[in-house]
Amino acid sequence: MRHIIDIKDLSVEEINEILDTADDMISNREKYSHVCDGKKLATLFFEPSTRTRLSFEAAMLELGGSVLGFSTAESSSATKGESVSDTVRTVGCYADIIAMRHPKEGAPMVASLKSPVPVINAGDGGHNHPTQTLTDLLTIRREKGRMSNLTVGMCGDLMFGRTVHSLVNALVRYDNINFVFISPDELKIPDYLKHEISNIEGISFVETDCLESAIGDLDILYMTRVQKERFFNEADYIRLKDSYILDMQKLALAKDDLAILHPLPRVNEISREVDDDKRACYFKQVENGKIVRKALMMKLLEVEV
Is 255 annotated in the active site? Predict the structure, then answer.
């Protein structure tokens, strides 16, 4: 039995295998429509979510399985003081696999130590979000045709952005990746990540606070929102929330084949006018997220076509 708590829990070969399965699903949807007949997914979401929770649920339903769970901590026994460990031990009696989101870093790891079924981390605080990373990788590969030799800009909240941290940890395992970290001083990429990637051959990074000066060099632009829920001081959030807004004026400086990604939800960091540009890929990401979660659950449940 395996759990996926961090993208590092998967080897590069396993990531590529999951992406290959996802590609095949896109071409042959009916082929996979009953592979999880009789299987049940439990979605334990102690923190609000739209895309991640619904994509997990849609994924299992499209595989022929069924779904149970809760969408807020208030609708669970956590309000009575039940521990995460006890919750997963209980839910593991009802389901074959668990997708769990929690506001506290490390909670899915704690759950995995007691769970009788596979646990997938669907996001833990500002730490990790491995299935969003698989979503991002599938989108990058489908849009660019490769996973190596890329200049990747990451813009916005790089300090608290768990999707950013997970994607960096995945991309550093491919060849010749150049990162451009674009953020205000208060939201810079954590030092531990910079230290890790600075020691990897073939990986480089630069930091800047100016999107306009960097956008012309990018193959991928990964936009993120400034996350109000990660701030202890609302005044700091208000001061920083509009630091970067991608609009058509800035996009005019970019390459014609730039791919714009965003893990969503979007607030106002990407202007609505950008949605109709051929370089906007964030709604493609939504569809890719459902597909790649199907492929991951198949792998963990050890079901085959």
Answer: no
